[in-house]
Amino acid sequence: MRIFNILITWLFFLYGCTDSIGNKQELSYQKKDTCFYSLIVPSDIDMPKTPPFDTTIVRASNCSVYILHLESWGTQTSYNLNSPKYSRSSHFNIGQRGTMDITDLPADSYSMSLQACGNGGGFILRIK
């Protein structure tokens, strides 16, 4: 009976900790009001046979912060966004995921470049 009581107490403790952690994380995301968008660039973007890769992001109206998630391509990966008025860059290592804040960028087309371990290429990112 003592083991049963200890087990029940432990389960209630575990549930209480898990529930409070989950609620805190959920509330923090609600307060930040952040939308995430993933860019998944074709692995052979630098090959001549690959058709041009362009992509469009349509920002959700219910968010106030917009973040791009960027995939790693090698030991070190760099993404650069350029236009006459704006530039952004993200540099990160293997096993990491890069991010780029596009919150203050107006709707437009932007030139993006990707470089990783001697490979890479360019593409157009349209933000609406």
What does this structure look like?
This protein is of the alpha/beta class and 128 residues long. The chain is built from 1 helix and 8 strands. The chain has a 5-stranded mixed sheet, with no helix packed on it. The longest helix has 31 residues, at 2-32. The chain is globular. Residues 2-30 have low confidence and may be disordered.
Please compute the radius of gyration using only Cα atoms. Answer: 21 Å
Extended strand count: 8
> What is the distance, rounded to the nearest whole angstrom, between the alpha carbons of the first and last residues?
63 Å
Uncertain stretches of 5 or more adjacent residues: 2-30
What's the number of helices? 1
Tell me, what's the shape? globular
Kindly estimate the percentage of residues that lie in beta strands according to DSSP: 35-45%
- Fraction of helical residues: 10-25%
Query: Largest sheet, if any?
Result: 5 strands, mixed
Structural class: alpha/beta
Strand order of the largest sheet: 2-8-7-4-5
Order of secondary-structure elements: HEEEEEEEE
Mean pLDDT: 77
Which helices and strands appear, and what pairs or packs with what?
Blueprint: H1 2-32, E1 34-39, E2 54-57, E3 65-70, E4 76-82, E5 87-93, E6 98-101, E7 108-116, E8 119-127
Parallel strand pairs: 1-3, 2-8
Antiparallel strand pairs: 3-6, 4-5, 4-7, 7-8
Q: Would you kindly provide a brief summary of this structure?
A:
With 128 residues, this protein is α/β, with parallel strands linked by helices. The chain has one helix spanning 2-32, and strands at 34-39, 54-57, 65-70, 76-82, 87-93, 98-101, 108-116, 119-127.
